[in-house]
Design brief:
By secondary structure, the protein is mainly alpha-helical. The chain is about 50% helix and about 5% strand.
């Protein structure tokens, strides 16, 4: 029996064949840790349980790709790398091992429960933990046990292999968003979106502009406006019991990266779930009676956690999607999150403000607060300009 206190358990895989001759093949498990010389039968795989998993009933070990001896059927020399160079080429063999790592990353990914909890698969915190085990297990295999690459080499391989899986899930979320769905599917869609956002940030997964927009729109809740409830938002706490805040921080980071490096307003779709997860804003909650919109920390505007990324976005002379269009699309959600229109207004240049006012979607208190801000800034800037001229 293997435990976190016991030593490793050593083993290999064996493939059995139907024919009578040579009816089994033992895998060749390679490791450069013990030197480059080839052993007669390769090395044994070590199985050990990390201490952090010792209290759990089940521990998953991920063994990558099982291969036979690369010299099988050829004349074996005493030095492994001589054989590799002769029959494969060293670069080709390393490429093969890297491809094995990428294949393993993709092959071991579990299914997502996108529409029903009764379907096979995982979601939420269970999915986040499972992906973490897969990554840690394969990293240990290729970096520690096989010693064929450094951790800095494995990490981008994992990200690349994981990215295609993430893109499929994002496209699945986009498809669900265009269909009539029940409460359970709505809740799973948002849960999946925040979980995917966390995994993308955690493992530095690159996604294209199109998928980024899809994910932002999937992060917008699907509330019941008639009954003023949002089951999908409330659902998040149940399925992210130990990582709720961490996942919220990841959604914020994802949103800030867009606002701080582009002119794409799609990050605004993420704002209600950020306010719910990090600002403790209740769905369809009433605005506070405070009028502290002039505070140095802009909590009243709902942008205190966005830092200078809001300033970058505000400096853009034109958005990828018009401000008027964004306000019309998100107007129904102003009741869900009273900070949302404040955040959007705080992201506008003065030149855009008039176009937004004509949409008649902005609450009066926010309009007055914005006018006060623009008048104060304009007066201050003009005063500074006059003083500079005097000097």
């Amino acid at each position: 029996m293997v435990s976190s206190q016991s030593g490793p358990f050593y083993y290999n895989y064996v493939a059995y064949h139907e024919d009578g001759k040579n009816n089994r093949t033992i895998e060749y498990f390679h490791s450069t840790f013990g030197g480059r010389d080839l052993t007669e039968k390769g090395y044994k795989r070590p199985l050990s349980i990390p201490l952090k998993h010792s209290s759990k009933d089940i521990y998953h070990s991920y063994d990558g790709v099982v291969r036979e001896d690369p010299r099988l059927g050829r004349i074996k020399s005493k030095n492994f790398w001589d054989n590799v160079k002769k029959f494969f080429g060293i670069d080709s063999y390393y490429k093969l091992l890297c491809e094995d790592a990428e294949l393993a990353v993709s092959a071991f990914q579990p299914d997502w429960q996108l529409k029903s909890l009764k379907s096979d698969g995982l979601n939420g915190e269970q999915m986040i933990l499972q992906v973490g085990q897969i990554r840690d297990g394969l990293r240990k295999l290729f970096v520690n046990d096989m010693s064929v690459m450094f951790g800095s080499d494995f990490d981008p391989i994992f990200s690349k292999g994981f990215s295609s899986h993430m893109k499929k899930v994002i496209h699945g979320l986009d498809k669900i968003g265009k269909e009539p769905v029940n409460i359970e599917t709505k809740s799973l869609r948002l849960l999946t979106a925040v979980s995917v956002t966390y995994l993308i940030n955690e493992y530095d997964v690159k996604i294209e502009y199109k998928e980024r927009r899809m994910l932002c729109e999937a992060l917008l809740p699907m509330p019941d406006f008639e009954n003023k409830t949002s089951t999908d938002l409330e659902y998040l706490k149940n399925f992210l019991p130990n990582v709720f805040s961490k996942v919220g921080e990841s959604v914020l980071k994802f949103s800030r990266n867009i606002a701080g490096k582009s002119s794409d307003p799609c990050w605004m779709f993420c704002v209600p779930v950020i306010h719910f997860m990090l600002n403790d804003i209740r769905p369809f909650g009433e605005p506070t009676v405070k009028v502290n919109h002039n505070d140095s920390i802009p909590k009243w505007w709902g942008i205190d956690q966005f830092g200078y990324d809001i300033d970058h976005f505000k400096s853009q002379s034109k958005w990828d999607r018009s401000a008027g269009d964004m306000f019309k699309v998100l107007n129904p959600y102003f009741a869900l999150d009273y900070l949302l229109p404040r955040t959007m207004i705080a992201s506008l240049k003065l030149e855009m403000f008039q176009d937004v006012l004509t949409t008649n979607t902005i609450p009066l208190d926010i309009t007055l607060a914005a006018l006060y801000y623009y008048l104060r800034i304009t007066y201050t800037n003009n005063l500074v300009s006059v003083r500079c001229k005097d000097i």
